[in-house]
Model the fold of this input.
Amino acid sequence: MKIKLSILFICLAMSIFSQEKVDISFVDVPLLDVLKETETNFGVKFSFNTEIIQGKNFSFKKEKCELVYLIGEIERQTPLVFNQINKRYYYITKDSDFDTNEYNLLKEVLVTNYITSGINKKRNGAISILPKQLGVLPGLTEPDVLESLKIIPGVQSPNETAAGIYIRGGTPNQNLILWDGIKMYYSGHFFGMISAFNPYTTKEITLSKSGTGARYGNRVSGVIDIKTTEKIPEKITGNFGLNMTHADALLTVPLSKKTALSFSARRSFSDILKTFTFNKISMRVFQTFDNNQENQIIDKNIKFNRDNKFKFLDYTTKFVYKPNENESLSLSFLHTKNKMFNNFAIPFYKDKYNDELDIDNTGASINWKKQSTEKKTHNIKSYFSSFHLHYKGNYNYIDDYLILSSAKSNSLTDFGISYNMNYSFNDRTDLFWGYDFTSTKAAYELKYSIDLEGENRYSLLQEDKATNNTHSVFAEYLYDNDNWNINSGIRFNYFSKINKFVLEPRLYFEKRLTSSLSVKASFEQKHQTLSQIVEFLTSSLGFDLENQIWAQVNNDDIPLQKSLQVSSGILFNKNNWKIDIEPYYKKVSGMTSQTSGYNDQTDDFSNGEGKVFGIDMLVNKKFNNYRTWINYSYTKNSFKFLDLENKYFPANHDITNYFSWSHAYKLNNYEFSLGWIYRTGNPYTAVKEFYTDEDGTPHINLDSDNINALRLPNYSRLDASMTYSFNFSEKWKGKLGFSLLNIFNKKNILSRTYSSIPIRNSNDEIEYQLKEADKMSLGVTPNFVFRVSF
Done:
């Protein structure tokens, strides 16, 4: 009932917003003249220092333009900020953080404010997110790099994490994530609940769901390309802040007029202070892990001791050198680290459980770009990326009588270098071509041992180490005029590990039928050599938070993955209405049951394939300072494996219907946002048989004939956020924010598994009972943020 009243209030508010509309046409007009004409046309008054607009011109054309839209366009093209006093009066200040390169991005944009401010649609079909311009989103007080992607149709997170990004049915390990050209192999903090990328260093995030450019390779799903700012400020700038999980700081220092150095750092403080927000997230992350350990205690009145500790950090540095306006050189460095300790003890039984996990991702890149002539632009870049995961678990029963030990290590080293050139035939036609070389070494080692009364009774070692070198040549043809946008390309790859050549055609085109209506279509083919396999050796001991390891293709049990995707759709954009509808079909081959997590139904690797049919839809409307949008996705995502029925069944992450309705409103220095999510529950498999053998060992057999035939209850959540921006002085600015996730504390089930629980029966004998293990979503979770910039 409360949700219905909230929605009714918002609908009523939409009906009362109105504003005068004026035809606008400025072509390289001095900004002072633009402001004077705007005052006359809209009956408003601007107060400003004329020095901040000297030498600045403005170009913009739009029929029936509203004042708020015109002001937004001026703010995008210039370093000016319009501060509203009331309906008529504004005072204008200068934004010292303004980057002219961000405005240059708009030349590539087809639809600005595609969903909300700071989210634009590019001419090649990709989505561009500019964190500095991004409005407040439901449940977020800060522009989390990966979390912000979830409001885009076709992007979901069935496990409710920031790093668990599923793009059109593809799994997170099938996404190509780049940070300043560095390939990232672990993109989350706190087991994915927070993204590993500092949003305040980020200039632009580009998301490609289909029709991906030929310059991107070796992943079969989406592309998330993160680029940091290359601005050389006139003076030292920076910002710092904290929320209820971590603190961060960013500093940019101009070394000269041509060089600058920036440094950023973030660190959790949960090892010093555990806030209510951290405790909520911790309960969500460790719930099944903790419950499994507690359920093994036969006498429930026996006391136990638990100590879960977790911390993360990341830091970046970047050096920028611009000898002239046509040339630039940048060096970037990134390091992320996650560390977890778990100690669980039952003093009465003299049992001890210890787990330790370390995850590191380090990378560096160098990027040189030069425009040699008006038509030629050259680019040489190189990167190095290193990923390491180390886990150690020791389980000591009855004071060293029985010791179970497990260890896991997984490492990746990735090096790449590329050259590309863009040749502009004219203002409408470009040819982009280049060459990539990458060398990727993947290794893993799994150990498990059982010691009884000081003697080793069982040991097992699984390991693999392999290197793949990839040579790729690619070309893209880009054509853009008032009626057509075409991005066609081809990529030719050679994979040394399997001695195979593959061809990958790509195409995206958009045809404008009228000034407000366009049709579009895309086609792409991709391949992937690296896979993440689900290992059950160490996770069977209870630690199942990070049970995936990277492994190299071998054309045997880990085949080369291949995807093919086609899509088509329409785009309507008129009078602040935006409607985007896009059906698609995707097929992926080269999958295995272990890469998909179905080896609890079969003991062997089983080859298979997947297919996805879906429809993504966006409806967006803006009324003055209020914006509302609806995001709906229909998805039918199914897998088929030879040893698992050999017929299609719903994928683990199949979400048939996903619906969200979001709202954003700006009033002077306040921003408000409200969002409601409603979706189909995740699929799960029922138990077919549960029994205890002659040795007293319990066995749980799932119904392998009806995999994922059941559904969890539907998921729903209402989130809200608000921020307030203010000035300490002309130079120092501040921001306060508050967010509330899952306002009504809805008890959503994210996944369901089963475990066997020991109990003492009436005859004082130990027997086992089948128990459902449900992973619940976050309950009501508040968060605060305070930031200062200068």
Residues 1-18 have pLDDT under 50 and may be disordered. The longest helix spans residues 276-295.
